[in-house]
Specification:
3 domains; binds iron/sulfur cluster; about 20% strand; about 30% helix; 20 strands; globular; 5-stranded antiparallel beta sheet; Sulfite Reductase Hemoprotein, domain 1; alpha+beta; Sulfite Reductase Hemoprotein, domain 2; binds siroheme; 19 helices
Length: about 575
């Protein structure tokens, strides 16, 4: 397929050639998996296994010890299981729970894009792990890679009558935009391993053989909740109800993203913009056309500039709309009105319309382990409804029948899980990315440090009377932005071990980015500084004023003025 991007005079990024030559994502993965001389795979294969939901990693806690011992790194793999809309069955939960123990590091990680991750899978058990996942009717295909990733949706059926209809559309979009290559089945699932592939069966009608320039993320939001953080994604659909409360259609957003690199001002987080409106029956077609615009015009020469947010920023919304409409052959509608209240989860019990109830459980940073894991296994053994992963890394036990409720309630109480939901408003609205020890890109701790930091800040929260105040605090181990830190009222972004940039001023409902407040703070500096800010907020806030709005009103930061406001060397707005 000849595309305008290919006409670019700059040379294509090497990954483009790798994809083109990979025979629809096969490359040398098979040979690398069969190579027993090392616990990892080659760099080229590592780029391709991402499309299969598999990342080579190593246990970074063990690096220096292994180096001293003259051994190769402690190589492991992460496998990501996509769960469209975040909905899975108790039976599937049980399979994943078992696999986490038998093939992983004994934990299940709920990601903030409604997927599961296994960490610590060794190479020789990778294929078995993925086969078992597929036997449970889930998969890891396109959980990562330069394709449309797991499609997200607000998981709360009780919130809005629009949910069931929207979830069907989510599944249709996810299915339609899934890669078609047989490579996934050949490599991970079929009984006999084959290295070939039939080009006729492999044709990728939407992607072509070089797939997309970069990852592409789609979400569906159901107002008033913005739990999916719609403005952080490449493409968003915001459900709009008509006067009768029925699904009228969706406002469409394009061009959001979080990732940046420290001190590279040409990289920056960006909020998505509203492009137009479409009816429910038009969503799949609209999504496909928007994806093809990025396929054809995304930057394939520079992966740091290859996300759709840069295509939208460079070409402008009007150009994008014209191009999409040209491909559709019809015009998008005028955006409707919607209002978001917040980005958080509704914890605890909620009642459904048919006598069913739902329980949303706080799971700190989505790490299901120890007593929580044991309890959730027991619940999965008796639960007849489903499980829903939330976009904030938590878990909803949904559709609990009246007959099962006493048993599930007793299990939650008996294992102390109901008390997790009684944490402070700060903790309940905290989110950290994985970072160390598995993430190869981490510059600082995140998942292992944020809980500790919140515990220290909770002392101030209690003393200042802010215990029940929701304040969104997020941390990441690097500026790639996996924990969506640039949409947090208080955001910490790792710079180096023990050092973080601190960002303030995002909107509570996820509609405004934050701004750099202080660069490179040590953990020793963060604690008194943040405590002081919380104290000041308690004393000086206006009635109902959110922490992010307060940070701007009292001049701690200015609302973001552009890319420079995220980079320490260039930022001019860091407050006193
Ligand atoms: Fe992410 C790369 C973890 C959500 C932006 N992300 C990674 C990798 C795979 C590291 C790597 O490439 O080697 C991390 C694996 C760590 C580990 O050990 O497990 C990783 N990202 C995560 C998760 C698990 C964080 C979490 O704790 O929940 C999330 C998995 C979501 C999923 O199920 O698919 C996760 N990542 C995000 C988000 C948030 C979102 O999408 O809502 C973002 C920011 C939004 C965006 O995409 O702009 C995000 N991850 C990145 C980036 C920067 C991309 C960019 O445009 O610059 C990278 C690095 C890259 O792609 O080169 C990255
Ligand atoms: Fe790793 Fe950085 Fe993503 Fe955290 S933000 S998981 S450190 S890539």
């Amino acid at each position: 397929m000849s595309t305008p991007a290919e006409a670019d005079p700059k040379p294509l990024h090497k990954n483009e050639l790798l994809k083109a030559d990979s025979n629809f994502l096969r490359g040398h993965i098979l040979q690398d998996l069969q190579d027993t001389s090392t616990g990892t795979i080659s760099e080229d294969s590592a780029q391709l296994t991402k499309f299969h939901g598999v990342y080579p990693q190593d246990d970074r806690d063990l690096r220096s010890q292994r180096r001293k011992e003259g051994k190769e790194k402690a190589f492991i793999f992460m496998a990501r299981v996509r769960v469209p809309g975040g909905v899975c069955t108790p039976k599937q939960w049980l399979v994943l729970d078992t696999l986490a123990d038998s093939h992983g590091n004994g934990t299940l990680k709920i990601t903030n894009r409604q997927a599961f991750q296994f960490h610590g899978v060794i190479k020789s058990r990778l294929r078995e792990t993925i086969r078992e996942v597929n036997r449970a009717l889930l998969d890891t295909l396109a959980a990562c890679g330069d394709v449309v990733r797991n499609v997200m949706c607000n998981p709360n059926p009780h919130l809005s009558g629009l949910h069931a209809e929207t979830l069907d559309i989510v599944r249709a979009v996810g299915g339609h935009l899934s890669p078609r290559t047989r490579a996934y089945h050949e490599l991970w699932i079929d009984d006999t391993l084959v290295g070939g592939g039939d080009p006729a069966e492999d044709a990728e009608p939407i992607y072509g053989k070089t797939y997309l320039p970069r990852k592409f993320k789609i979400v569906f939001a159901i107002p008033p909740s913005n739990d999916v953080d719609v403005y952080a994604h490449d493409l968003g659909f915001i459900a709009i109800a008509d006067e009768d409360g029925k699904l009228a259609g969706f406002d469409i957003t394009v061009g959001g993203g979080m990732g940046m690199s420290h001190n590279q001002i040409e990289t920056y987080p960006r909020l998505a913009e509203v492009l137009g409106f479409c009816r429910p029956d038009q969503v799949v077609e609209v999504a496909e056309k928007i994806v093809t615009v990025q396929r054809d015009f995304g930057d394939r020469t520079d992966r740091k500039h290859a996300r759709f947010k840069y295509t939208v920023a460079d070409r402008g919304l009007v150009w994008i709309r014209n191009e999409v409409e040209k491909r559709l052959g019809w015009s998008l509608g005028t955006p409707r009105r919607f209002e978001f209240t917040d980005t958080g989860d509704r914890y605890g019990w909620t009642e459904g319309p048919n006598g069913d109830s739902h329980f949303t459980l706080f799971i700190e940073n989505g790490r299901v382990k120890d007593a929580t894991k044991v309890a959730l296994r027991k619940i999965a053994e008796v639960h007849t409804g489903d499980f829903r992963l939330t976009p904030n890394q938590h878990l909803m036990i949904a559709g609990i029948s009246p007959a099962k409720r006493p048993e599930i309630e007793a299990l939650l109480k008996g294992h102390g899980l109901d008390s997790a939901n009684r944490a402070s408003g700060l903790r309940l609205n905290s989110m950290a990315c994985v970072a160390l020890p598995t993430c190869g890109l981490a510059l600082a701790e995140s998942e292992r440090y944020l809980p500790e930091l919140v515990t220290l800040l909770d002392e101030e929260v209690e003393a200042a009377g802010l215990r029940d105040d929701a304040i969104v605090i997020r941390m990441t181990g690097c500026p790639n932005g996996c924990g969506r830190p640039f949409l947090a009222e208080i955001g910490f972004v790792g710079r180096s071990p023990g050092k973080y940039n601190m960002y303030l001023g995002a909107a509570f409902n996820g509609s405004r980015l934050n701004t750099l407040y202080k660069p490179s703070l040590t953990t020793a500096e963060i604690i008194p500084l943040t405590r002081g800010l919380l104290r000041r907020y308690a004393q000086e806030r206006l009635a109902g004023e959110r922490f992010g709005d307060f940070s701007i009103r009292v001049g701690l930061v200015m609302p973001t003025g552009g890319p420079a406001d995220f980079h320490s060397e260039q930022a001019g707005t860091a407050g006193a």
